[in-house]
């Protein structure tokens, strides 16, 4: 009796391993050691581990033919510690880096990549929901104190009328932050505060919106919210990355994303879970979960019709209890390679392999250095205090003077405090 129990457990364990191996093989992910004994010649008791199964940002070269995709926001509209709202980083072996969506909470994840902000100068926004561009202002203005000296370039769709488009939204964002800009512009080198906005027609079908340095980004219309939502397709070096932002299944995605290497498409929670976990009324759950967003079954159908090398579902709270149900529902309509993304998931993509890992991150992030020589601040942009506010400042010259002396001595400068 005892023996039978043990045997059953072992058999169950073997079956579980077999299923995992089968999933890895089907997904064309790295089935490391699955088929033959591992090569241990590179291992040593005193050397670094030869191959890491965790990604540590900033520690790995990108091969010239490689694309690295990092999930920096995979959750629902509302931010939570485990998942920020939509944001995907695509890094290419030619040195170019692209952010697709920059939803609430994602700036923190971007910073964790330890990439100099001057390299992160291209943001593509799929639509103007806060969970898709809520951290743009933080990244844009915060970036000016994180050593960005290159203008931030932002691409986004038009709307049904100009006031629903990206250009007006970002013009108003700049007006909204006029106080913030007033505090910085005359005090630091503010070249990184320049915003370059590229609005393109939302109804362009497979229209080229970016074509530089061998990289082409196209937009296709999305069906989500209102007129003025799009999905993106990036192609470089024979690799194709597609990002839905938000959309329900649509003919443009099916036609133009076909055969993508990595297709990142929204995959919302099923309406049943929107009711029980999210607290939606049944009608809200059905409307939001199938008519405004893509349910797991709809996601699977789209992937079956487009057959990417790897299908990636995102935009749901991906937990131990939700993921199995989402996966099982996707499997009703799709049998191919599948990953359900969480924040900090990393995809290394070449023509031969798509490797998926989780990344570790450092909590104590400091800015990477400025990549250009810093200019002195443009004093003409400084906004003065009124006499009233100035009259309230306690200058403490006997305390602040030595602080200035200390810096002047170290750096051979001759700066003086504003408040005397
Ligand atoms: Zn949306
Ligand atoms: Zn969304």
Quick structural overview:
The protein is of the alpha/beta class and 420 residues long. It is 29% helix and 20% strand. It is built from 13 helices and 16 strands.
Helix count from the secondary structure assignment: 13
What is the spatial order of strands in the main beta sheet?
A: 1-16-15-2-3-4-5-6-7
Low-confidence stretches: 1-33
Please name the fourth-level CATH homologous superfamily of the largest domain: Ribonuclease Z/Hydroxyacylglutathione hydrolase-like
Structural Rg: 25 Å
Largest sheet entry = 9 strands, mixed
Are any ligands bound, and if so which? zinc ion
Q: Helix/strand/pairing class, anyone?
A: alpha/beta
Shape: globular
Counted up, domains total 2
In total, the number of strands is 16
For the residues shown, what is the average pLDDT? 92
Oligomer: single chain
The CATH architecture term of the largest domain is 4-Layer Sandwich
Walkthrough of the structure:
This protein is α/β, with parallel strands linked by helices and 420 residues long. It has two domains: 54-359, Ribonuclease Z/Hydroxyacylglutathione hydrolase-like (Metallo-beta-lactamase, Chain A, 4-Layer Sandwich), CATH 3.60.15; 384-420, no CATH class. 29% of the residues lie in helices and 20% in strands. The chain contains 13 helices and 16 strands. It has helices at residues 2-26, 106-111, 130-133, 136-143, 166-176, 178-184, 251-256, 271-276, 282-292, 296-306, 323-330, 387-390, 397-411; strands spanning 54-55, 67-73, 87-92, 97-102, 122-124, 152-157, 195-200, 207-212, 215-221, 230-236, 239-243, 262-266, 310-314, 338-340, 345-349, 354-359. The chain has a nine-stranded mixed sheet with strand order 1-16-15-2-3-4-5-6-7. A seven-stranded mixed sheet has the order 8-9-10-11-12-13-14. α2 (106-111) links the parallel β4 (97-102) and β5 (122-124). The longest helix is centred in the first third of the chain and has 25 residues, at 2-26. The chain is globular. It starts with a helix and ends in a 9-residue tail after the last helix. Residues 1-33 have low confidence and may be disordered. Bound molecules: zinc ion (ZN) (2 copies).
